[in-house]
Design a protein that fits this description.
CATH architecture of the largest domain: 3-Layer(aba) Sandwich
Structural class: alpha/beta
CATH topology of the largest domain: Rossmann fold
Shape: globular
Largest sheet: 7 strands, mixed
Strand content: 15-25%
Mean pLDDT: 89
CATH superfamily of the largest domain: Vaccinia Virus protein VP39
Length: 353
Amino acid sequence: MNIPNHETRQYTGIVLERMLHLPPGGKMGDLPKHLQHDSFIRSGDKKTGGPNMRLLRLEKDKPSLTITAYIFNKFVHPTEDRYITPREAAVLQDFPLDYEFKGTLGQIQKQIGNAVPVGLGKALATEAKRYFEHLNRSGEIKIASYFSGAGGFDLGFEQASDHLIQFKTCFATDIEKWAESTIQFNRPEWNFYRADITKLNPKEVKEIIGHSPDVIIGGPPCQPFSVAGKQQATKDPLGILYRDYIKHVDALQPEIVIMENVYGLAQVKSANMIEEIYKSFGEIGYDLTHRELMAADYGVPQKRRRLFFVAAKNIRYFQHPQPTHCETENLLGLPLYRSVGEAFSILPNPTYK
């Protein structure tokens, strides 16, 4: 089987020296001082700098920390002295092995790092499936996907389908050209439409699908709310795109909506985002619930935390997914978290360029 996006190279010089001295779970600050990056500055308990904070060797017997777009200069393989490949990062996000990412290396890394882990999407989709079962619905359930990126959320719904309910993405949209290339290559039937949501008319969405979707999913850009960033929130134009998302929900009136964002959204001090989102959905006739979910709790080999809002016409029929995995031995008999080593074991050796 040809494994796409699974290439690496030989490293030399100080980059290799750093890797050779980096223990499992080790970061830049764990290296001898002569190997630390020049920007690695410590002032009391405060740490500043750029690339210094990114270096991290994964641990073979534990889940990965949150995969980001900085695959190339952050995540070091648990046992080999090289950065992980995009495919290895994709495995930690639960993407299928044959799902090929298009674009430049940086664009590919961004798609993978920004994606909703497929396994986490599947857990939510399984509960959405039960929601429709409560409504005595069966057959094809149509999805409109916004801010689709590489399609991780959609793949989760696809994998949750069974003989009673078949989720089908009938419309997908994103502003990025590389997302368009990736989805059109892997899932042309999703009817990808590259557009800026602020200029996209809901009528166009309805025309493409044929009628209003049953489900709307999507994750408006999260950088303005990330705890790793400056938390500019609604001061950043990207931070108000969720309002356009809600406008589309209002116009299309799906049965259920799932909106994903970083857990830092709840910690923004400059605006009560949670309250505003509840109010916005309430004004268009939806009840809302939200919860922070950890990807590792659902079999994803990654400790990625995300906030999910679920809006529905009959919210009493929706339950947040219960964990299927656990970090330590437990009375419920749940399997332990999947580790990086377990995830990587299905991959052949990468190709060296």
